[in-house]
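Folds abound. A case:
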Amino acid sequence: MNRTIRSGLMAVISAMLVAAPATAQDGAPASLGNLKPRPAEIARLATQSLLLGVVRAGDMLVAVGDRGTIMRSPDGKLWTQVAVPVHATLTAVDFADTAQGWAVGHDGAILHTDNGGASWTLQRYDAAQNQPLLDVVALDTTHALAVGAYGLMLATADGGQTWAPVNAPALLEEGLHLNAAIRLGNGALLVVGETGLLGFSTDAGASWKRMPSSYDGSMFGALPVGQSGALVFGLRGNVLRTEDVQGGYWTRVDLGSVQSIYGGAQMENGTTVLVGADGAVFLIAPDGTVQRRQYEVDAGALGGGSLSGVLPWQQDLLLIGEAGPALAQVAGLKT
């Protein structure tokens, strides 16, 4: 199941957020087997807290964020927080189908659900390494890829029973932050990160090569374009697009802004929506025309906080960020 959101806000603030410490037993080293992570609290104001990732799971929306928060909603308005066995900030979520999905976050936490996000089990936890995971892409119900800070890259081929480091020296030898991973229309994988890092795999992540980049700053997220292309976005409003990632030719999309972009989505009508710092919302039409729009938010205001992602939902846009989730109506935009 392809996501239509790429959350990159956490790539900026991850180092500033400190997840609640786990409780070690008998001074044992940090691992899932000998630590008891503190579970997330059911919070009265969870819908007003930082959210960093959201995805559809069948007819439900599932969102993750600060302090181990995971919430579900049938309509984008009424949200219910679910029990989560870890208090660490969760940065991303993805589903392979309507039932099977993964969420990742601080302390190297990886959570799995087999019932559409109604309940979650902890598959990995390593607070000692201080390497947050920043994104996850579910390839199918048994295969998934997770990426994170300081070159952390893990994969599973057994539904998450085991998570193993990926052998990708071209991407990992410098210890750069890997901020996002996506699957292209043709099934190839793309990873983006610090210093314009672009990692590319055509064999489901078995081998990787580093692609040339025309921008040497941080990229926080990416969206697939057509069968073999992609749009990547990041620091100071930098957006690049290509029709063929493997071809290596990227063109710059001028937003007319230096506000950093943290998330994006593609509409069925071909419009791309990008969101970011200070509540910025940009629309990129199929012909490349860029417009910045104001939005009206149902049942409350997001204020001046940054937006981490956007998801098309019925005739509206679901925006998430520092102030939680909100449905937005953008004038003139048809999803």
In short: The first strand starts at residue 23 and ends at 24. Helices lie at 9-13, 169-172. Residues 9-13 form the longest helix (5 residues). DSSP finds two helices and 30 strands in the chain.
